[in-house]
Write a structure and sequence with these properties.
Layout: E1 12-15, E2 20-24, H1 26-31, E3 36-43, H2 51-67, H3 70-74, H4 77-89, H5 99-108, H6 118-130, E4 135-138, E5 146-150, E6 158-159, E7 163-164, E8 171-175, E9 178-181, E10 198-205, H7 212-227, E11 230-237
Parallel strand pairs: 2-5
Antiparallel strand pairs: 1-2, 3-10, 3-11, 4-10, 5-8, 6-7, 8-9
Length: 242
């Protein structure tokens, strides 16, 4: 795994193929002093669902369905930490569920997952395997720099597959045009499409980088195998910013 770590007391550059920077706002790092944000970036050949990848997803889903229930999902460390972070921000984690938790709940309720595209399916496989929520973006649709902040009252956000989402008090990634993602849902504007060729994926560890390195390795391996991810680069952003 090609891991690049960029540290600077004011700003951290994690991606240069859209000439932008990613920062964590002080309002977030003050609440979560050991927060870790990881990234994966690269070029891909996305496609409709790959049959071999979907076979892996079905195999994993069957194992989860036979071994987990809603209570055990809540005890997965990454999910428990994310729900605690939402409570700390004043957001109800049972009303605004982490995307990884929502995927696992679909499986244990017998609803299963549905195919989207190879890149998104790979992300979903990592999420259900680790309980870690992953934000995924088409880099060519990102405008300017990205900041991780806290959602504002009335802030506009169109969530993928669910329409307007109240992001007030949610941890929110924003570019120059507005919010693009949070641990509950990503934005329609910057979502990965079958035609996407440049990707950025972000993982937020509110209480440190527990398990994130392993998730990055799995993600990179799947994207390389099923999406021909070239020059796939991963790394971490530190918690000390503006």
């Amino acid at each position: 795994m090609n891991t690049d770590i960029y540290l600077n007391c004011k700003i951290m550059v994690v991606n240069n193929f859209w000439n932008a920077q990613v920062t964590i706002r002080k309002e977030v790092s003050d609440l979560f002093p050991v927060i870790a944000v990881a990234f994966l970036r690269g070029s891909i050949q996305n496609s409709l669902t790959n049959p071999d990848l979907w076979s892996l997803i079905l195999e994993k889903s069957n194992g989860i369905a036979g071994s987990m229930d809603e209570e055990s999902i809540r005890k997965v460390e990454a999910i428990s930490d994310g729900k605690q972070a939402y409570r700390h921000l004043g957001k109800d984690p049972n009303r605004y569920r982490l995307s990884a938790e929502a995927l696992l709940r679909r499986i244990v309720k017998g609803k299963g997952l549905y195919p989207i595209s190879s890149a998104v399916d790979a992300l979903n496989l990592v999420s259900i395997s680790t309980g870690i929520t992953i934000g995924a973006f088409d880099s060519q649709d990102i405008k300017g720099d990205i900041e991780l902040g806290i959602g504002l009252p009335g802030e506009e956000f169109m969530a993928i597959g669910r329409g307007p989402l109240n992001v007030e008090r949610l941890p929110v990634y924003r570019d120059q045009l507005g919010a693009i993602g949070n641990p509950t849902s990503d934005s329609e504007r910057t979502q990965i499409k079958v035609s996407t060729t440049e990707i950025l994926m972000l993982i937020t560890g509110f209480y440190g980088d527990k398990g994130i390195g392993n998730a990055l390795k799995q993600l990179e391996s799947l994207l390389t195998r099923f999406c021909e991810c070239t020059k796939c680069t991963t790394g971490f952003i530190s918690s000390v910013i503006i």
